[in-house]
Amino acid sequence: MKNNLRKSFFSSAGVFIYVAVVAWLLNHTNSLFGGGPDTFVAPLFVLMLLVLSASITGYLVLAQPIMVYLEGDKKGAIRFLFSILGWIAVFIFIVALVLVLTK
């Protein structure tokens, strides 16, 4: 159980880091790529980034619990998934707290 708690923390930390990088990228898009006129390429970029993000975060959240489930430990897989989601909730709370305190 202790090992799964550590693994769930690292999976959720990976989600947090990935989302932070994507948020930074989206926040700095104009300075990185120029503020040219909106074309077909801008929505294409955003939608492709959405697909990539869903794939990466889906892997980070679901891959290990699915592997545990397929190994036959159904209750362990559910606990593992909810511990990942719990850590993500903790990260969301910390970000919200930072937003409130820096306002």
Tell me what the structure shows.
- With about 100 residues, this protein is an all-alpha fold.
- Helix content is about 85%, strand content about 0%.
- The protein has 4 helices and no strands.
Keyword list:
103 residues, mainly alpha, 4 helices, 86% helix
In short:
With 103 residues, the chain is mostly helical. The protein has helices spanning 2-27, 29-33, 41-70, 74-101.
Indicate the radius of gyration in whole angstroms. Answer: 17 Å
Q: Which regions are unreliable across 5 or more consecutive residues at pLDDT < 50? A: none
Instruction: Name the helicity range.
Output: over 70%
Specify the structural class.
Answer: mainly alpha
Oligomer: single chain
Strand tally: 0
Count of discrete structural domains: 1
Report on the biggest sheet. Answer: none
Order of helices and strands: HHHH
Topology:
Blueprint: H1 2-27, H2 29-33, H3 41-70, H4 74-101
Helix pairs in contact: 1-3, 1-4, 3-4
